[in-house]
């Protein structure tokens, strides 16, 4: 088993030195550690863990990971919002050892992202549904409502960071033009829905309509399980004041720029449209709980049907056909890409894992002692905690930290180059020549911008503008000026590099077109 596993997963080692910052940020581990700010409140909303009639106003929290160990001078860093798994119930309650923003796999992922130079936020979103109900209407409807509330929470979190950047001096030094959602397990469902679900008609498909009237859950036969009049819109605005709190960083965009799914699925393939955010997906082909293609979601503990969804092989193929993943280069030649391309049917952005037996969450690890302790802390017996641990091993055979880290290596090394190229923060690095006091204002840019140098003894001789793949899209020669105005013209939104030549050499700066 181990030899077969290692034949499809490539393990990379990381060595940190005092000169690590000479490595390429994001693509490499350039920081030796991560600094973590814990329990940051990003929103407050009503939790329904005990059922539909039990709203409790709850602070929604996250842990924010930033590069550490070496001073980071960057003031605009891509943000990864990491959504953990858990089947929309707390760990142990959901019958598994996992389901927290502090799961071992989440800690590892977010720490690694910070060591690469990202800001990463491990986020808690609202939970609560009834998977044990013998009534499929309740199983399906309560799960869809849980997903909907989680979507509202993640959008609130994105707005929180944009408000922080605009109002509070950008405490976390986030580049709000590069906000990325990474969802693991059930978090993957939420990340994908955040990027694609934006029309009332999309929650009114036949499979999302109540089959019967149930006043306790607010279901009315023939209408959507999700009642936006009560729960608010996709952003979390509106609704009944005792059900939804609308006052979570209003007035800011909740747009995400890239999506990474790890073992989740898309609620319906019709949600995906041309122009949606680029996305990549990682999926165990024989995952017993989430389909690789089109198929059902089932309750992990009972095997009961909940709803049909679309897995990675379907929506990544669709995203490529729509051109949504066009920003991902087709010329990667690394071992991760080479292996993926040998098993993904030629679909860029799709990384299937082949295992000899059903696997769920092989990137996770846990131990019996902590699982039993967590169960007892919630009032469960020691035998129940032991059963939770043993049941988890049935769908994660040969579970170990080494096995999980091998999967995490692969996920990071396939995902990061793609999001970096799409976001434009790798491949067009700035040259901060200290001899040239170069300014670009305003930045980000809507229509035009000014390039200038403040040293009266220097002058700009030429200026050129390049896109993310290094193509020159604009140039001016024969200059002798301290400032030059550049008109954006018809250039598309994105990240560009402006380079000037002066009496004392060259300098480059990154510029963002909105």
How would you explain this protein's 3D organization?
This protein has an 8-stranded mixed beta sheet with strand order 1-2-4-3-5-6-7-10, with helices on both faces. The longest helix is centred in the N-terminal third of the chain and has 32 residues, at 136-167. The chain has 10 helices and 17 strands. By secondary structure, it is α/β, with parallel strands linked by helices. Helix 2 packs across helix 10 (401-423), helix 3 crosses helix 4 and helix 8 packs across helix 9 (382-395). Residues 1-22 have low confidence and may be disordered.
The total count of strands amounts to 17
How much is the radius of gyration in Å? 24 Å
Query: Uncertain spans, ≥5 residues at pLDDT below 50?
Result: 1-22
Q: What's the helical proportion of residues?
A: 25-40%
Percent of residues in beta strands: 15-25%
Measured distance between first and last alpha carbons? 49 Å
Structural class: alpha/beta
- Quote the average pLDDT: 91
Strand order of the largest sheet: 1-2-4-3-5-6-7-10
Order of helices and strands: HEEEHEHEHHEEEEHHEHHHEEEEEEE
Helix count, DSSP H or I runs of 4 or more residues: 10
- Anisotropy-based shape: globular
Summarize this entry quickly.
By secondary structure, the chain is α/β, with parallel strands linked by helices. It is 26% helix and 24% strand. It contains 10 helices and 17 strands.
List keywords for this structure.
single chain, 514 residues, alpha/beta, eight-stranded mixed β-sheet, 26% helix, globular, disordered N terminus
């Amino acid at each position: 088993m181990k030899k077969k596993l290692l034949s499809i997963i490539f393990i990379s080692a990381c060595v940190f030195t005092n000169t690590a910052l000479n490595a390429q940020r994001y693509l490499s581990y350039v920081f030796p550690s991560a600094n973590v700010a814990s329990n940051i409140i990003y929103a407050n909303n009503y939790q329904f863990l005990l059922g539909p009639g039990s709203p409790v106003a709850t602070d929604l929290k996250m842990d924010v990971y930033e590069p550490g160990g070496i001073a980071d001078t960057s003031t605009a860093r891509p943000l990864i919002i990491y959504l953990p798994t858990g089947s929309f119930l707390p760990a142990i309650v959901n019958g598994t050892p996992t389901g927290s923003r502090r799961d071992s796999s989440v800690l590892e992922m977010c720490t690694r992202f910070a060591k690469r130079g990202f800001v990463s936020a491990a986020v808690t979103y609202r939970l609560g549904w009834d998977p044990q109900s013998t009534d499929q209407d309740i199983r399906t409807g309560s799960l869809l409502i849980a997903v909907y509330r989680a979507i509202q929470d993640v959008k609130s979190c994105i707005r929180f960071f944009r408000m922080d950047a605009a109002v509070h001096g950008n405490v976390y030094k986030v580049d709000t033009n590069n906000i990325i959602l990474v969802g693991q397990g059930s978090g993957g469902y939420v990340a994908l829905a955040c990027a694609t679900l934006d029309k009332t008609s999309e929650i009114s498909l036949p499979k999302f309509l109540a089959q019967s009237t149930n006043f306790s859950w607010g279901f009315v036969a023939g209408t959507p399980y999700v009642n936006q009049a009560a729960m608010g819109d996709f952003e979390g605005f509106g609704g009944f004041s005792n059900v939804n709190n609308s006052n979570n960083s209003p007035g800011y965009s909740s747009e995400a720029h890239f999506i990474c799914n790890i073992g989740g699925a898309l609620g319906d393939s019709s949600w995906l449209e041309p122009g949606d955010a680029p996305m990549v997906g990682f999926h165990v082909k024989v995952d017993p709980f989430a389909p690789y293609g089109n198929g059902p979601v089932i309750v992990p503990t009972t095997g009961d049907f909940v709803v049909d969804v679309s897995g990675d092989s379907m929506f990544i193929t669709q995203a490529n056909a729509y051109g949504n993943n066009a920003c991902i280069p087709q010329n990667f030649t690394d071992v991760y890409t080479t292996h993926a391309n040998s098993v993904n049917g030629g679909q860029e952005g799709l990384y299937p894992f082949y295992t000899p037996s059903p696997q769920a969450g092989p990137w996770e690890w846990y131990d019996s002692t902590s699982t039993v302790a967590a169960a007892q802390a919630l009032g469960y017996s020691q035998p129940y905690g032991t059963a939770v641990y043993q049941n988890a091993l049935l769908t994660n055979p040969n579970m170990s930290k080494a096995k999980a880290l091998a999967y995490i290596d692969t996920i990071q090394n396939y995902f990061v180059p793609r999001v970096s190229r799409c976001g434009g923060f790798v491949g067009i690095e700035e040259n901060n020549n200290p001899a040239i006091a170069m300014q670009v204002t305003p930045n980000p840019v809507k229509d035009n911008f000014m390039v200038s140098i403040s040293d009266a003894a220097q002058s700009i001789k030429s200026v050129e503008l390049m896109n993310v793949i290094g193509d020159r899209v604009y140039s001016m020669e024969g200059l002798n000026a301290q400032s030059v105005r550049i008109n954006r013209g018809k250039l598309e939104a994105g990240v560009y590099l402006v380079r000037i030549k002066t009496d004392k050499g060259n300098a480059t700066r990154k510029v963002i077109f909105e």
